Automatic annotation (TrEMBL):
Protein name as it appears in the record: Casein kinase II subunit beta
SMART domains: CK_II_beta (SM01085)
CC annotations in GO: cytoplasm; protein kinase CK2 complex; UTP-C complex
Biological function: Regulatory subunit of casein kinase II/CK2. As part of the kinase complex regulates the basal catalytic activity of the alpha subunit a constitutively active serine/threonine-protein kinase that phosphorylates a large number of substrates containing acidic residues C-terminal to the phosphorylated serine or threonine.
Biased composition (Acidic residues): 229-243
Organism: Aspergillus ibericus CBS 121593
Quaternary state and interactors: Tetramer of two alpha and two beta subunits.
Annotated region (Disordered), positions in chain: 222-264
Length: 264
């Protein structure tokens, strides 16, 4: 708000939404139509979630004329930002809101996917919760269908509830032509230009999976043996049944029996 300190109160309020949208860190937001903000049906239930609700709404809709001190004005300003974010989550799933967000998506205002195989595909903001103060905003890539943290700390502090959990899916339902083909390309490890043998990696994975499963069974108090373990135990039992001297005597006896048979 420093840019408007020199302005009058009327100028200060008349530019609030323009200031909010153009402020650094608010690039993910689109401008909400005034008729949407003035329709009380669209604001149902928000009066219980936002402090100084009426003053905050007046500030957002450019009719704020309260002669408040700096502390109160700061609290109202904070509530106005919160109110705008909550209304924004509702607005961007409307026809008009989706159209505005599509334009920002095409321009790449939300950033590019950091995954190399996605080749810089545009991202979309999304929330993991619809309830405020649960998690911050994430960025969804429709090509690899994964989510990422924003690079900028300004964006990383935005509440995810200001975009909601349904926006990105709703957008591609309304604009199916924007849905990219899924990427099936995967990085292939190589040594001196040759692919690493896949069966070796598979064998390592199978061994590790078996050891993890054994550990889980032991923790659960379940005794389970694998075929390999059973064969190893049998060999050990065979070795332990007879002492070394008995085996040597048996071998010598077998040899003597063989000579006797040959003599006959």
């Amino acid at each position: 708000m420093e840019d408007f300190n020199s302005e009058t109160d009327s100028d200060y309020t008349s530019y609030w939404r323009d200031w909010f949208i153009s402020s650094r860190g608010n690039e993910y937001f689109c401008e909400i139509d005034e008729d949407y903000l003035t329709d009380r049906f669209n604001l149902t239930g928000l009066n219980t979630e936002v402090a100084y609700y009426q003053y905050a709404l007046d500030l957002v809709t450019d009719v704020f004329d309260l002669d408040a001190d700096d502390d109160l004005r700061e609290q109202i300003e904070k509530s106005a930002r919160h109110l705008y974010g909550l209304v924004h989550a509702r607005y961007i799933v409307t026809t008009r809101g989706l159209a505005k967000m599509v334009e920002k998506y095409k321009r790449g205002d939300f950033g590019k996917c950091p995954r190399v195989m996605c080749e810089g595909h545009p991202l979309l903001p999304m929330g993991q919760h619809d309830v405020p103060n649960q998690s911050t905003v994430r960025l969804y890539c429709p090509k690899c269908e994964d989510i990422y943290n924003p690079k900028s700390s300004r964006h990383a502090s935005i509440d995810g509830a200001y975009f909601g959990t349904s926006f990105h899916s709703m957008l591609f339902q309304v604009y199916p032509t924007l849905l990219p083909e899924k990427s099936i390309r995967r990085y292939e490890p190589r040594i001196f230009g040759f692919k690493v043998h896949a069966s070796a990696a598979l064998a390592r994975w199978q061994d590790q999976f078996r050891e993890d499963m054994k550990a889980s069974l032991r923790e659960a108090g379940v005794e389970a043996k694998f075929a390999e373990d059973a064969s190893e135990d049998e060999e050990l039992e065979d070795d332990d049944d007879e002492p070394l001297e008995t085996k040597e005597e048996k071998v010598a006896g077998d040899a003597a029996s063989g000579r006797m048979d040959l003599g006959n």
